[in-house]
Design goal:
Elements (H helix, E strand, L loop, with lengths): L28 H15 L6 H8 L3 H13 L3 E3 L5 E3 L2 H8 L1 H21 L3 E7 L2 E8 L14 E3 L4 H8 L3 H10 L6 H14 L2 E4 L6 E9 L5 E10 L8 H18 L14 H6 L2
Antiparallel strand pairs: 1-2, 3-4, 3-8, 4-5, 6-7, 7-8
Helix pairs in contact: 1-3, 2-3, 5-9, 6-8
Length: about 280
């Protein structure tokens, strides 16, 4: 399979590590240095000193100083009390201002807040980014105990309910590219079969996939072409005295995903209810 970017899939963007290894035809050194610093800080679990950044990038301290000064002045990075540098939320804010994402968030928030209140469950919305997913919305359950994902957090598309749902509703060429980019790992063939089953039933349903005791139910949010631009996922937690059943909450989540799709010009696929493992439906005569 080709290692080039995913064709005909605006929602799927190749991660940097998967980009072509051919030498670039045009280089802007100052831009390259700035991006190197941003990517380094984004991958670091702790703030880094000026010397630490220079050493890790293989550049001189004066070189790094000028780049850091510019990024700090523009608000992309900041310094802590010990003068170490860390990323601000500006990059995230820019991403959220991207028209497709901004429109999705604006159309979804009121519906998701109402859904969480009625089902007493938390919900998150993820988009596809190459062979990974990224969470762009998290709406917490009003219950005192719940499960949540970190907005901006990333995960493997194949190994997450949201990711498999997104892949199930991509054009075949884009799905094949994302699968090739994911590499080889155990149970890969079964996961691919699962993605095909998700496309048939209209959702993912998986038990104990993230954490023990959680049932992930994920529905696609589709654009006008019928391709998934996002996935709405409910990590269902059963209470001792449930206010609403899993089947009821899933039906309401499906309806909400459909309404969000319609607000973006899309139409939801036929959904086979009640929700259960897609592979069990696929195995039925």
């Amino acid at each position: 399979m080709s290692s080039e970017g995913p064709p005909n899939a605006a929602a799927a963007i190749a991660p940097d590590r998967l980009q072509s290894q051919e030498p670039p035809r045009y280089v802007a050194p100052a831009v390259e240095k700035g991006l190197d610093v941003l990517e380094l800080l984004a991958s670091s679990a702790v703030p880094l000193s000026q010397r630490g950044i220079a050493d890790r990038l293989g550049r001189s301290v004066p070189e790094v100083y000028r780049v850091l000064a510019s990024l700090e002045r523009r608000g992309y990075i900041a310094r802590g009390a010990d003068e170490s540098y860390f990323l601000t939320m500006k990059l995230h804010q820019l991403a959220m201002e991207h028209p497709p994402v901004k429109r999705l968030v604006e159309n979804a928030m009121a519906l998701l807040n109402r859904l969480a209140a009625e089902t007493i469950q938390g919900f998150h919305v993820c988009v596809l980014d190459g062979a990974e997913i990224q969470a762009i919305i998290q709406v917490d359950s009003p219950a005192p105990i719940g499960f949540r994902v970190r907005v901006g957090g990333r995960n493997s598309a194949l190994r997450s309910a949201s990711g498999r749902t997104l892949l199930a509703f991509q054009p075949p060429s884009a799905r094949q590219w994302a699968l090739a980019a994911s590499g080889e790992f155990p149970a890969r063939d079964r996961l691919i079969a699962r993605i095909e089953a998700i496309a048939k039933v209209g959702y993912e349903y998986v038990v104990d996939d993230t954490l023990k005791g959680i049932i992930d139910v994920s529905f696609p949010i589709l654009d006008y072409s019928g391709h998934a631009i996002a996935a709405l996922t409910m990590p269902f937690l059963a209470a001792q005295a449930p206010v609403i059943t899993l089947e009821e909450a899933a039906a309401m989540a499906s309806e909400t995903a459909s309404r969000i799709s319609e607000s973006l010009g899309g139409r939801q696929p036929q959904t086979i209810l009640p929700v259960r493992d897609p592979l069990s439906y696929a195995a039925s005569p």
